[in-house]
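Weekly structure sync - notes
Attendees: PM, LS, DV (DV joined late)
Agenda: review two folding runs queued last week.

Item 1: First target. Sequence and structure tokens pasted below for the record.
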Amino acid sequence: MPTIYRTYRQSPPVNTAVVVRTKDHPLLFASAVRSKFAALDPDLPIYLVKPLDRVISESIIGIAYVAAMMGGIGIVALVLASVGVYGVMSYSVSERTHEMGIRMAMGASGSAIHRLIMGSGMWLTAIGIAIGLPLAFGLARALSSILFGVTSTDPLTFIALPLILAGVAALASYIPARRAVRVDSLTALRYE
């Protein structure tokens, strides 16, 4: 961005911010800075003396509230996605009850039925994660250039959350699979 630097004596600003770098805690040097400014101009008021990290935290407090709200919305979305995955898997298993009955009548073991249902659920989960991770990585790269403090390679986001989602999907697949194994083969053959 084009910038022009000019002396403050040509066009004195109403408010001026002065930044002082220190090796110790910045507020320990506030009186020394005030005495230096008093030597330049005794009528010059010095106010709002605070460390830079506090200035930054005060400037992004609105973003922090939005981030907390987005985190809460993300948790609600995770719960809704979990309920949705469970509902889809439960419906899928109930639609295949007749098939499960035929498989069990033909000699399939409970573990084979369990593996079949868990495998189909985890296969869909793997496809979803394979599609979602590159999209999330691309969006994170785009947002990292716009938002302060957002990195495009956050390990929590790209490792922990897919593992949590895979665990939720495994649980959502396990419960209907366990229920399908417990169904009597004669009841399942009569199921319409």
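Item 2: Second target, run right after the first with the same settings.
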Amino acid sequence: MKSLGGLVFALSVLMGAWPVCASAQNNPRVVLETNFGDIVVELFPDDAPITVDNFLGYVNSGFYDGLLFHRVIEGFMIQGGGYYLEDYIIYYRSTGEPIISESYNGLSNVRGTIAMARGGDPNSATSQFYINHADNLFLDRENCSDGVGYCVFGRVVSGMDVVDSIAQTTVYYVSESFAYFPYNPTVDIYRAYVLACEQAYCSDVSGDGEVNLEDFAIFASRWLDGNCNSANGFCGGADLDYNGGCDFSDLMLFVGNWPTPAEE
């Protein structure tokens, strides 16, 4: 049985519920810090749950930190998430197992969306992703020559100017595998991290428009659950920082949001 001892101290704080605006919890948002500026992408777990969970896993593990956007084609897309540069040599970072394609979700490869890169096998995507610099509808399932297409799983909500700047970078032919490699400068991903859901209405996990003991009961029932993902709505909204578990950091967010009226 999961211990709720770590939550008991919050009861005195939670006894006086403050009404807040009813709202569904935000979709996860990920920040890609680059040497050109920050790109913030919103992920769509309802449309691409396997892909979103896969991407969040790489983000939360620090996998993307120090990697490159290694393939940049202006008017098409920018691609990264697989390689890093060390002593002028391009190295590949080993990944986890490939995932199945969710390209059937109806999301389109329009400008500003983020999608999974893959090989010839539709179910070969691992860590590499691309951001569409233009409307690339030919990559959608219904238009793609292979009948499968490429899976969109989110969109840029801040930093398209950064994407534009990256797309305009001078590229070089290094090899057949790196035919559009930006160099001098390279495009570096300094860090990738998930934005915690800090808004007060995120604590309304029951969705009844108020933050009250019902929300606390739901939160407590998820305490120390280490399997929070898209399949269970990130533990019913209790995984406020989208790190895969309901733990002390989520509790601090939950309690910290408590007395603050929320706005959409």
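Discussion on item 2: The chain has two domains: 5-26+199-257, 29-194.
Action: LS to circulate a short write-up before next sync.
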